[in-house]
Design goal:
alpha+beta; FAD/NAD(P)-binding domain; 2 domains; seven-stranded antiparallel beta sheet; five-stranded parallel beta sheet; 15 helices; 20 strands; 34% helix; binds flavin-adenine dinucleotide
């Protein structure tokens, strides 16, 4: 690459930034593409995502898929139509990662892990002459509009021809995304919505017995209901509340309810496979000398952590008759006080407001600066929706930057400017 080649600077080496970098390398030959990350290595959150089985996307029909992005669905639709589930699968397979569809419709690489995929991706970027720089923390702009970075060798300044910011959200800050860029952009007139935890656990006040005996215990089978939405699944009791798949899936509704009314009540059905009538019949069986705990276990199959939850959350009067006990088992109120910390959430809501960006993901207040990934104001449940939108917005921001660098470039069927 010549010294005076136009320079594209991507800050943030997570999935959104790497996708933007690859897009520019493919679409704007002759442009020097550099990715900078504050951490000693790239894609740390992606690697963490692979710990529990990397769920890259979802196989449901596109219209159902799009609905998962809630209020941001219309805004994200062009990006997701250009790079949706099918494209994510093809991308993973192009990196040598065969995929499969799990029983819930979620899509995983066969290895389940992120590391082979990330390794192959970094290798491919290297072959495309994308320069990867670690331990470079972006700190803002100087008064000539050059980007400034803290590096182990001291501060450096770079004047780019196009910039893509893909700095992530604010959950799991030890993996790199600390959300500390918000002040830098707000100072430039960019509208930033406050971060809130998403796909997170919740806190409640447990008795010492519950905390000490049952922290870490999985609760299943169980069905959870909030605001008329019922979900069968499982969750885990923690020392200070609840977390796990079914809680994350309802976390947006729970968080919004807590923001509205100061608390949220989750209704637990501790016997999802028995009707109330059957429970009343079962619990009416003669108890003899059996303790209530034994009776509950034998007659209704409620024991262990589920019996503890019943004792913890049901009113005393619930234990007076089979009818009231069946009611409590079918709709046990669990009061939740607040979401668990942002640090422990899987993702965040909030970030750069949709109106702050044009159709190519360029900041209206900062022409030539494009943004992608979790730093934008959208949220989605777990299920592969997070990574898909990070990759899709990374592609779109990369296309926007490519066009800025080489206006003759076409978007290969997709017009990232949305015009
Ligand atoms: C435990 C866990 C499990 C998950 N599992 C899944 C899953 O199975 N499926 C799924 O779809 N999603 C999953 N996610 C979410 C997914 O990993 C994220 O949505 C995704 O990584 C966000 O991509 P991003 O590129 O926007 O940001 P990030 O991946 O957070 O990358 C941002 C990068 O920017 C760098 N950076 C930040 N500030 C600066 C700065 N000032 N200067 C230089 N560099 C900076 C950071 O070091 C980081 O490398 C999971 C997340 C967690 C925490």
């Amino acid at each position: 690459m010549k010294e005076d080649s136009p320079k594209a600077i991507i800050i943030g080496g997570g999935p959104a930034g790497l996708m933007a970098a690859e897009t520019i390398a493919d679409r704007a030959p002759g442009v020097a593409v550099h990715v900078y990350d504050a951490m000693p290595s790239f894609g740390r959150k992606l690697l963490m995502a692979g710990r529990g089985g990397l769920n890259i996307t979802h196989s449901e029909p596109f219209d159902a898929f799009l609905v998962r992005y809630g209020e941001a669905a219309d805004w994200l639709e062009p990006a997701l139509r250009a790079f949706g589930p099918k494209e994510v699968i093809a991308w993973a397979e192009s990196l040598g990662q065969k995929t499969f569809i799990g029983s819930s419709g979620r899509v995983f690489p066969e290895s389940f892990k992120a590391s082979p995929l990330l390794r192959a991706w970094l290798r491919r970027l290297n072959e495309k002459s994308v320069a990867l720089h670690t331990r470079h923390r972006w700190t803002g702009w100087d008064d000539t509009n050059a980007l400034t970075f803290d590096t182990p060798e001291g501060e450096i300044r770079i004047a780019p021809d196009a910039t893509v910011l893909a700095l992530g959200g604010a959950s799991w800050p030890r993996l790199g995304a600390r959300g500390d860029w918000t002040g830098l952009l707000a100072a430039q007139g960019v509208d930033i919505r406050p971060f809130r935890p998403a796909n997170c656990g919740f806190e409640t006040v447990w008795s010492a017995h519950m905390r000490e005996r049952f922290a870490g215990a999985p609760v299943k089978p169980v069905a959870l209901t909030v605001a008329g939405n019922r979900l069968e699944g499982e969750f885990v009791v923690t020392a200070s509340g609840v977390e796990g798949g079914a809680i994350y899936a309802l976390s947006r509704l729970l968080r919004d309810e807590i923001e509205r009314s100061g608390e949220a009540t989750l209704r637990l059905d501790l016997a999802p496979d028995r009707s109330r009538e059957r429970l009343v019949r079962d619990l009416s069986r003669p108890r003899g000398k059996a303790s209530l705990a034994n009776h509950l276990r034998k007659a209704a199959g409620i024991s262990g952590v589920r019996a503890a939850l019943l004792r913890e959350c049901a009113a005393k009067e619930a234990f007076l008759s089979p009818e009231t006990l069946a009611d409590a088992i079918k709709a046990l109120p669990l009061r939740l006080d607040k979401p668990s910390s942002m640090e422990s959430a899987i993702s965040v809501a909030g970030g750069i407001a949709q109106d702050a960006l044009d159709g190519a993901m360029m900041l209206k207040a900062l022409p030539g600066v494009f943004c992608a990934g979790e730093m934008l104001d959208w949220e989605a449940p777990t299920g592969g929706y997070l990574l898909t939108a990070c990759l899709a917005t990374g592609l779109r921001a990369g296309l926007g930057a490519s066009r800025q660098l080489s206006p003759s470039i076409s978007g290969s069927g997709d017009d990232p400017t949305g015009t």
